[in-house]
Amino acid sequence: MAVGKNKRLSKRKGNKKKVVDPFTKKEWYDIKAPSMFTVRDVGKTLVTRTTGNKIAADALKGRVYECSLADLNDDENAFRKFKLICEDVQSKYCYTNFHGMDITRDKLCSLVRKWQTLIEAYVDVKTTDGYLLRVFCIGFTKKVNKQVKKTSYAQSSQIRAIRKKMVDIMTKEIATEDLKAFVTKLIPDSIGKDIEKECADIYPLKDVHIRKVKVLKKPKLDISKLMDLHGEIGGAVDESGEGISGAAGEFVEPEIQEAV
After folding, report:
1. Full-prediction pTM beyond 0.90?
2. Cα–Cα distances in Å, from 232 out to 18, 158, 201, 247, 251?
3. Tens digits of per-residue pLDDT, 214-256?
4. For residue 189, is it left (φ>0), alpha (ψ between -120 and 50) or beta?
């Protein structure tokens, strides 16, 4: 067969595409945690630069970041994980809000043992600022002082009473607070300690924790409220990412100077 007749045999030149490193089209953004946490700079996230109709801020909004409480608060509570969702992007900063909480698998497995009763409860409750949360609680029965008996099993009637108490306390603690106050209670796990104290007269408990928190529904995004959550004033920032004084970046008249 003559060369050139069959298109498959003929070699084409200059068909190779120039390989471009994808990271040349990317840029870094800082992730900001809400003011409830000690460490505000969580980390950095990568996104493709704004080109045409594809805006970088739209790609960042809705991203969920999972952080250990030990990293957020500079302490030893590494078993609790907080989820933060990016709700607004200003300058090179991603402003996040609380999106959920969980306990690590190894911590949960270390709590479950033989010869005791595991008691779990959950409740759907709405905060004062309109967030619908599903909160899960876990607790275990414990031996009393000078107990000879090997096991410490609770009766089914006691389990029902403890579970009812758990639901009542969680509802009372969350329904009267906004999201910021609730997260402030989650960090030291004060709700778990209250449940342990209240249920002691039914059956002594140990290792009572808020195991998981899910955000089922949230109100429409309010930039000014988000900025208050971050300790910023208004909804605008300057080039360096610092908050501009005044509500939503409105003009503020300068103070009168005594001397020029």
Report:
1. no
2. 46, 48, 46, 10, 16
3. 999 999 988 888 888 888 755 444 544 444 444 444 444 556 6
4. left
